Amino acid sequence: MALPPAVELRRRNRAALLEQLHRHGPQTRAELTEALGLNRSTIGALATDLADSGHLQETTGQSTGSAGRPSTLVACVPQSITVSAVEIRADRLRFALVGLGGEVLERSETALEEGADAMTAVAGLTRGTAAAAVAAMPGLVDEGTVAHSTELGWVDRRVAADLEAATGREWKVVDTATAAAVGEWARGDAREARKLLYLHGGRGLTAGLVIEGRAQRGGSIQLGHIVVEPGGRECECGLRGCLEAEMEVRAYAEDIERTTLAAGMGDGAARDWLRRSGEDLGRALGAVVTATGPDEILFGGWLRELYLSTAAPVRSALAETTLPHLRSKLRLRTPVLGDEGALIGAAETGFEAVFDRMR
Amino acid sequence: MALPPAVELRRRNRAALLEQLHRHGPQTRAELTEALGLNRSTIGALATDLADSGHLQETTGQSTGSAGRPSTLVACVPQSITVSAVEIRADRLRFALVGLGGEVLERSETALEEGADAMTAVAGLTRGTAAAAVAAMPGLVDEGTVAHSTELGWVDRRVAADLEAATGREWKVVDTATAAAVGEWARGDAREARKLLYLHGGRGLTAGLVIEGRAQRGGSIQLGHIVVEPGGRECECGLRGCLEAEMEVRAYAEDIERTTLAAGMGDGAARDWLRRSGEDLGRALGAVVTATGPDEILFGGWLRELYLSTAAPVRSALAETTLPHLRSKLRLRTPVLGDEGALIGAAETGFEAVFDRMR
Fold first, then answer.
1. A45 and A137 both lie in a single domain
2. Coil, helix or strand for B111?
3. pLDDT tens track of chain B, all 359 residues?
4. Does A174 share its domain with A256?
5. B349, part of any domain
6. Which residues of B touch A240 (CB under 8 A)?
7. Residues B116 and B202 in one domain
């Protein structure tokens, strides 16, 4: 049955106020009035209400946006709403319990033995009190199912259901690249990007797209399977000439640092590989940029090291395969959250669901 | 100032009811109660209200979904809310005035002389009574500006502002391919597609993406400028080996019917071109599919004829460049609205804005 209108409106305003403080940090009541377009008295009543329920507290300090003398700020109580975030990799699990406002309250990491069940390990790390639970993992993830993951070796695995069975609670499942894109947008310095493309280098190459703060529906972009050399090397996906196959990702991903070091010391083979890989990556990116039109690209995972040592070939191959109009507004750089992006983004995805549910 | 909650809620329910009838056609009150999740008495009050304001009328007949004897249906009054839709092409303009519920109330078409100003011609076709006005045109369109249009020869033209100056009213501007995708989703038979990719063949090749009924932000995909032959033929965009250049789009777009006819009669050059073009198109599509993951692709404009005569090479080149997981759920076909798609989609884009404004 529909709620009475006044109750429904108050719920929506509560959600909007909490989301505002979660995203932007402590603020004065005047700033909140301005940001949310509500009356001063409405803000006052909501803040009192949410302080009574233990979600907000008043502190003294300076809000992010303002200079001048300290004033009374409204701030989140981190423990009042928490989200469990897990990042699953082939060889380890990382866990964070993140509180309202973005503070990481707990953090742990565990190695996964060869053949160990990731779901059982997740159950060992997480507890049931969080308002939402989100797991990030590399691959083509859509609606709770991993259709294909080069890195984890999973095909059509119903991960959300498996996680629920192992832990007794509901899980949201996202891909690592998209989670990292969300993380960089929400907590990194990519907030200005309208369309943010995050490239993730793991044992495979994927990309995630965030459009105006929201993850693109339907999961990650299979960057590693853009065909850059028709009829080229055989790829394990069954195609020929995929970026992953041409770059010999399997052979190089594990020791990119050694390769860049060797190239720096004059190793001809390492140099050649870096240059060719940069060109292939730039060419694959050209197609992705033409199809998706991002204004910012972040090179994450081990693609960070690759990009830092091959920016010139990447850029020139990209220039040869991207319309000048799409290229002119494009920024290329490395992520500020580094390896933490996917875990933070998974938590933010959870908070998004929490706020959506409140409305 | 914020509206009182009850007023705001009533507005939102009015918008939801009108949108439901606009999209799905006449329905009984019981069906509306079910579809909108509102009380029967609320639906009754809303319907009476909207009948009084002239938006709805009661008729007798059968709703789309049901069999059995005719019953009393609630239906839109088409004239109560109208949208002006215009499609701008290089050589002509098409106009439709579309009423609430999707009925085309007026329709006209005018040739554009070489060098004529499209904006003045639009002003001559449209009148000021419509609730929204939307213009579709081929090219890379974003936030009221045409960044680049091969077909119209425009670069960074602020079309929304130009249209407003010529007609004295606000315009929304969309690209032809995206408009056609919206049209096929809303009024064609592509409603089941989660991600619908519409390919438009005009003097250039573009594509539009509709995700769960909403146009992808940031405008069309520049399909014609996916590089399919690195270092290949020079394209007028400045790159080399673009799909448009390799397919010699300029030379063939105008007489695709003659080319397919010639090929059918055994003309070797025409056959070769069709086969090569199909392969190039399939390869470019492989990259777009890998980047965007559609579940349905429609071949529109003159690509319709091309696809109908080269489906085999298109499909086999696509198979060589697309992950099996992405390919397995993909349907390829031709649009049911044919040439009307963009105009209908422009009108639907206008109605979407009208309903959003009502809330």
1. no
2. strand
3. 455 567 778 888 999 999 999 999 999 999 999 999 888 899 999 999 999 999 999 888 777 666 667 788 999 999 999 999 999 998 899 999 999 999 999 999 999 888 788 888 888 887 768 999 999 999 889 889 998 887 888 889 999 999 999 999 999 999 999 999 999 999 998 989 999 999 999 888 999 999 988 898 777 899 999 999 989 999 988 999 999 999 988 787 778 889 999 999 999 999 999 999 999 999 999 999 999 999 999 999 999 999 999 999 999 999 999 998 889 889 999 999 988 999 999 999 999 999 999 88
4. no
5. yes
6. 320
7. no
Query: ipTM of the assembly?
Result: 0.87
Q: Tell me which residue in B212, B238, B321 faces A227 most closely, judged by beta carbons.
A: B321
Q: Check whether residue A65 and residue A86 sit in a common domain.
A: no
**Whether residues A278 and A217 fall in one domain:** yes
d(CA A327, CA A325): 5
Q: Which of B227, B238, B240 sits opposite A324 (nearest CB)?
A: B238
- If asked whether residues B228 and B325 sit together in one domain, one would say yes
Cβ burial of B123 (10 Å; 0-12, 13-18, 19+) is middle
The verdict on B310 and B353 lying in the same domain is: no
- CA distances, A202 to each of A43, A90, A151, A317, B44 (Å): 46, 9, 7, 22, 57
For an interface test with B, the pick among A323, A326, A327, A359 (most B C-beta atoms closer than 10 Å) comes out as: A323
CB contact under 8 A, B287 and A283: no
Query: Is there a domain that residue A185 lies in?
Result: no
Is B185 part of any domain?
no
Residues of chain B contacting A219 with CB distance shorter than 8 Å: 293
Task: Quote the domain boundaries for residue A322.
Answer: 190-335
- How many other β-carbons are positioned within 10 Å of the β-carbon of residue B165? 11
Cβ contacts of B205 within 8 Å, gap of 6 or more: B199, B223, B224, B243, B244, B247, B249, B303
CA distances from B332 to A137, A285, B289, B297, B304 (A): 30, 25, 12, 5, 11
CB A195 within 8 A of CB A295: yes
Q: Do residue B219 and residue A42 have CB atoms under 8 angstroms apart? A: no
- How many structural domains are present in chain B? 3
d(CA B184, CA B264): 30
> Which residues from A are below 8 Å from B212, CB to CB?
217
Among A31, A56, A76, identify where a domain stops.
A76
What separation in angstroms does the CA of A16 have from each of A9, A21, A210, A211, A359?
Answer: 11, 9, 21, 20, 8
Residues B172 and B265 in one domain: no
Find the CATH number of the domain harbouring A36: 1.10.10.10
Closest by Cβ to B290, choosing from A38, A194, A222? A222
A169 belongs to a structural domain: yes
Closest to B197 (Cα-Cα) out of B185, B213, B210: B210
Q: Do residue B226 and residue A293 have CB atoms under 8 angstroms apart?
A: no
Q: Do A292 and B287 touch (CB under 8 A)?
A: no
